[in-house]
Sequence to fold (651 residues):
Amino acid sequence: MIGVLECRTQTVDPFTLLLYEFLKGEPLPTPSFSLINPGTLGPIDYATYGRFEGVGTPQYRYIAENPEGLRQAIGEGIFPNQEAVLQNPAYLALAEAGKLSDSHWDALRSENGQAAFFIWALAGEDPGVQTYFTGVLLEQAGHITHALKAYYAAFIHFPQSVGWGENQNFVWYIAPAALASIHRLCRDYPALGVQLVDAKVVVENSQDINLENDVITVWPGRFVRGDNQALFPLADLDELPVRQVRGKGQVQLVQLANGHWQLRVNNKPFLVRGVTYSPTMIGIGPNNDRKFSSHWMFSDQNQNGKIDAPYEAWVDRNANGTQEADEPAVGDFQLMKDAGINTLRLYAGRLESDGSYDPSSINKPLLRDLYERYQIRVIMGDFLGAYTIGSGATWEAGTDYTNPEQRRRLLEGVRQMVEELRSEPFILMWLLGNENNMVPDYTGVNATRTNAGSQPQAYASLLQEVSQMIHALDPDHPVAIGNLDTGMLDVYAQHAQELDIIGINAYRGQGFGGLWEEVKQLFDRPVLITEYGCDAFFEGKGEDEDSQAAYHNAAVRDIVFNQAGGPFTGNAVGGVIFEYLDEWWKDTHSGDPENRHQTLAQYSLPFPDGKSHEEWFGMASQGSGAHSPFERRLRKVYYQYQNLWNKTPLN
Fold:
């Protein structure tokens, strides 16, 4: 593949140049500790040791008919051969030294990777969770092939396994995260010479925490061997006719004959390189500021006639908390342009009294300047009743999507927003909702409030009605949904065909695994990752920019590989980073009157430390907070994007 691409790079589009850059991958690292029984050298062919039943159905299971052969092939520490670590002399030495006494969750943050591996291999945990995090530790230690086997073991044996949030109010499935890690390792380490094909898992009804109603369908797939040219074929898009076009105006979605989707602006392919932008001043939050989400658009704290964050943010390069003479105000708009960002995700405001659109929530001259001077467009969203915004419902009851008056309020607010903003040059698309399908909606395990997840068909019918209205009012811009992962896509496919783009907030680990294929199967539309990212805080260690940057790098690779013309599903049209700047209001349950940067973890997620620290997701921090909303300390991930997009200016 490298030779072929080198011949083509003089004439191909920048996307292929970027794909070529990613295809080069990384050499296999030197492991930080040894295994006495690594098993086979490559991934396991499970058909050799047993049989699959119910493939492609909810009755899927794997039955090992030669369990001893499977144990020998899988090697030490991985199901079903976890106890083999007891024969490792290093295990015995560490045990005698008292180095294996940590809990398995604390071990994830241990400096001793070998001890952590041993602890997790024998942990009294759900076996799917155990096997997945064993893979995480093996990968961190440089045992890439062994990690690949662990992730695949979790996927094959335990597709029903879940990880839970801290208060049992959030759930994530192991199998999609494991699949994401497998694809990432195969892609990032060409020396492995393998690719997993035809593997996928579809989890239906996962929007709630009731596991009994979830339906999990599994296709185990198979590993194929070959060089990069065979494993990562590219499509020549110039030779393909168009199958369908969604949209009649400036922004369109085009599906090609091979099923790949492109977002096109003025007839040119456009990859969304987006970011969620809410540069919140410390002390401001939804609980104490009615116009919290748009506060930044009008804030002029130093009263000099310039909007603070967009135009006057400055970079504290030496991290001393003082603005030096060589640290002038440059503004976030310029910093985002320098990083190659071409899109912001924003949400319009609603009036509390009747739920109608609040025109004072959007600073149109500011956003016009964003587009005209910095070439950055806007995805404009409406929460469509999420957090009860716009519906008129109480927080305790939740939005009722069967209530005619609440539906009328939501529809009317969107209509007013579209009529107000449809002619603005900065608009790229409309976004409906934000994780409305999640149950419970940030209220705890015993919540009885309603929302889209508890009223799927009613919510989908409202999406259809709103989308039809937007298309009639504004044929120039497509309509996307802001969904939590792939939950309820089957319902949308039946009742909301007017949706143009499936927008997904996805936190599956490093990469997105089978997400692209799941969408293609459930509701064939282009996919925009409306949120992806990782916090920059590692539980027990402190700020960790390296792990955050590695997580983002894997996500971008996955988006690019799944873009039209790429070697995989071809339905990715971009992604929106979550987020640009740390927000210090997220840990609202702490009740901290001093507005400190909180380090408490809110959820368990497939992040480097297994935890989500909500106040640390930014590409940039606010330093000590003393100079909010102006001070910026740009993290490694910011410079990573700057280097990536500036080398390959896609649009």
